[in-house]
Amino acid sequence: MSQRTRVSNRPARLASRMCRMMGVVSRGPVYYDLFEEFADLATKGMCPIGAPDERGHKDGWGLACFQNGSLKVHMRDAGSAPDASKYYGTAWEIAKLNMERAPGQSLIVMGHLRRASSQGLVAQKFAHPFIEERDGVTWAFQHNGSLITDSGDSGKIDSQ
User: Fold this and answer.
1) CA-CA distance, 34 to 19, in Å (whole number)?
2) CA-CA distance, 138 to 126, in Å (whole number)?
3) How far apart are CA 62 and CA 64, in angstroms?
4) Quick count: other Cβ atoms within 10 Å of Cβ 71?
5) Rounded distance between C-alpha atoms, residue 12 and residue 36, angstroms
6) What is the CB neighbour count within 10 angstroms for residue 22?
7) Which of 3, 18, 76, 128 has the fewest CB atoms below 10 angstroms from its CB?
8) Which of 74, 61, 69, 62 is nearest to 107 (CA)?
9) By three-state DSSP, how is residue 97 classified?
10) What is the pLDDT of residues 23-47, one digit of tens each?
């Protein structure tokens, strides 16, 4: 039995209700300040006080970093990134890779600040990015918005 999936296309005015994502591909430095500024989006990114979406993007966070194609750092958790010491510790691990890597080595960094949909669940297992290993290759995945499936699985979010 095949599973039908459709992607929810949301109007631009609903952008504040969607997750915040960051992607970096660099052979140069990736500074710690970038992660502090990204975490600020959980509370300040298109979430004006008094607006219906004032609650921000505090339902989970995650960071993943690949160096020359190998996963070096991955952490994700429920809750708000600005309030999580694990977030800042993970960001520091990634920033430290700048000092340890040889010239010309690349870093790929993914960051995600989750805002659960109205039906969404809030827990560590639902935070992005997800990591999967297939045939000896490690993949990271994160998305913004809702994927709607007709599978009827309960206890899972749309990207699982």
Assistant:
1) 17
2) 19
3) 7
4) 15
5) 26
6) 16
7) 3
8) 69
9) helix
10) 999 998 899 999 999 999 888 766 6
